[in-house]
Amino acid sequence: MTADVLADQYGIEAESVEQVPMGTDTVNWRVVTSSGQRLYAKEYPVSADLEAARAAWDMSEFCRAARLPVPRVWPDRDGNLLSLADGSPWAVVEEAPGKVATSPMTVARAEHIGMVLGRMHRVLAAYPLPRLRQHARWRTGSIEDALARCDTVLDAARRQQRENLGALRSQIAQRREDLHTHANRLRAALPEDLVEQALHADFTRTNQLVLADTVTAVIDFRAARALPAWELGRAACDPRTIASSEPWADCILAMVAAYRSENPTLPVADVLACTRIALLYMLFSFYGATTAEYDLPDEAEADLQRHWSERQTSIRRLIDSLPDLEDALATETARPGGLS
Question: CA end-to-end span of the chain, whole Å?
Answer without folding.
Answer: 51
